[in-house]
């Protein structure tokens, strides 16, 4: 384990962090295109195999802010190792899974690795020179979207040449190497938050997240008016305000409500919710659109899983390049401006898919614009959150931001699934208008994200570390006070 007397070069630390983020992001998306293959191999049905995605979503949504918060308190480096080990163990179990039940359990274990992202941002803020933070945060944040795109590109060839088991073996090897490198090269966190871990708050937060995401992700198959779906929504409506009240009254909150009320934090979180609705829905439904047999339906391109992934390669490359250059753009124009441009590009790219999707070159151009928007927006949102909160709360703040984006993705995917499949053909395939209307919904959410981004406060003066002892509430209150010079 790297000591604190001799700090590891920040560039080495950055490579280790990127390896961890890349491993997590690959596991987010590589499984999606091959669910039918897993369904056949494990002799299950479509309703059951979707839990391979749902278990991962639920687990990641619960553990991302919790692991980030524990990292703020006990040390980000050691929790990074814990998160990477969980990813590796879950990947090993998934690769060897003899049944669908074991695979679902393995995916739930992998979800613990969601803490990698907020821990990464916290370590960057702790270890990097101030002028390097924005670029490093932007690149690592964009890697999450890049990994999602690469997963779609690689899934088909891996399954064709090897088997679906290698969708887990490859990330497992990456994660093991990243965990070892983190243990030996990533230095211990110099910043710690005092106080205990609030277990009751963690349980309450986990409860409302699980009830909400279960209802949203399974409502389409269970029926939106079914007793179980309605019951889960009612439970969420009860548990969420109970959790907020408990956190507000706690002397050691898991999520400090004063921090969540900081103008920059709540507006960026709203952008994340809206942006997540569009981005994750695109990851889910664009491959399906490309794979639709055009000779049967009159739309789509009849692509295989491998071909549809390659068609989205331009989007992935654009996301990566936008993430790399986002730091320079933010230094020159500000992270808010980068976010507004990124969200606007996302809206234009989605609008293009609505009005012009008959030729492959059109779709390639539009998805490349989407990739630029994804990369710029991911980077800008992360930088705005990191800059807006006290250094001791970087992990939990960025964890909640990532979590809210995940919730948005679940909501967007559920809405899009309902719209796309509202009018199906006799053969079960959606009609073209289903995709057109679905992408139209995402134009609205992306446009709203761009509009909200315009009103994100710009911090003119900021004191990141306040000398002397502070309670968590005092730190968050100081962060809010630092925004009195904000301009809108």
UniProtKB/TrEMBL annotation:
Residues 13-464 form the Major facilitator superfamily (MFS) profile domain. It holds the Pfam family MFS_1. It is a multi-pass membrane protein. The keyword Transport applies. SUPFAM superfamilies: MFS general substrate transporter. Keywords: Membrane, Transmembrane, Transmembrane helix, Transport. InterPro entries: MFS, MFS_dom, MFS_trans_sf. It is found in: Cell membrane. This is MFS transporter. It comes from Nocardioides plantarum.
